[in-house]
Automatic annotation (TrEMBL):
Organism (species): Hyalella azteca
Disordered: region residues: 162-200
Pfam families per record: TipE
Bilayer-crossing regions: 131-153
Gene Ontology annotations for the cellular component aspect, listed alphabetically: plasma membrane
Biased composition annotated in UniProt, kind: Basic and acidic residues: 183-200
Protein name: Protein tipE
GO process annotations (BP): regulation of sodium ion transport
Length: 224
């Protein structure tokens, strides 16, 4: 991390460049959109002193004294990324506010990289994206693994709840089931006997007709 000093110090604008063209806008103090190419940009350079802005006493610190302005001629950025999106970040307003030479305003410098200076900083705002970047993927992975385990691992599957009938009701239920089975069997046996009887009668009728035909044929041959 850049390890910014949480207490703002005093910054003073010493130079502003308004450039055109992609080559001249390889970087800018403020960029509308973090993934687009810029063809018009503002580069702002500042001096800053190692004095808290809340302790700033006024015009006596405007002079260019090396003992006061500890870092000189460094670029300043709108935030640690140097870019943003409306309405939170408006680079036109930013240039109008911090661009005029001689402007005095609070800024934050990096204790690890003293040449890195920004105008907008909060510890929560810097840490929050990193925390979310760690938590969200891990949370999604954990939920996915949990669901897969629930669906595929037999030990995690739900078992059907079986309702146990009390003993006295169970015996009564068994008796009713047996009576029902006996009735169904009787019905099946009765229907089966009726069907067999009908088939036998039909067979007898067919045999009788065949016998009559044979007798008729035998009588005709005898007469001849």
């Amino acid at each position: 991390m850049a390890d910014f000093d949480p207490d703002p110090v005093v910054c003073k604008t010493i130079l502003t460049e308004h450039n055109y063209g992609m080559k001249n806008c390889s970087w800018s103090s403020c960029k509308n959109g973090c993934t687009v190419d810029q063809y018009e940009c503002d580069r702002i350079f500042v001096n800053y002193m190692a004095k808290k802005f809340e302790d700033f006493e006024g015009t006596e610190y405007y002079e260019d004294d090396d003992d006061i302005w500890v870092v000189k001629g460094v670029p300043i950025f709108v935030n640690i990324k140097g870019c943003g999106y409306p309405p939170q970040t408006n680079c036109t307003i930013y240039a109008d506010e911090f661009g005029p030479v001689g402007s005095i305003f609070p800024c934050y410098y990096s204790r690890v990289r003293p040449n890195l200076v920004i105008t907008d900083y909060s510890w929560e705002g810097a840490v929050h994206p990193m925390i979310m970047a760690l938590i969200i993927p891990n949370l999604i992975t954990g939920v996915s693994l949990g669901l897969l385990s629930y669906w595929w691992y037999p030990g995690c599957q739900k078992k059907e709840n079986s309702y146990e009938i009390p003993p006295d009701q169970q015996s009564q239920q068994d008796g009713e089931d047996e009576d029902k089975e006996d009735d169904e069997k009787k019905i099946e046996d009765g229907d089966g006997g009726t069907e067999k009887k009908k088939l036998a009668e039909t067979k007898i009728d067919i045999i009788s007709e065949d016998q009559k035909k044979m007798n008729s044929l035998a009588g005709v041959e005898t007469e001849k």
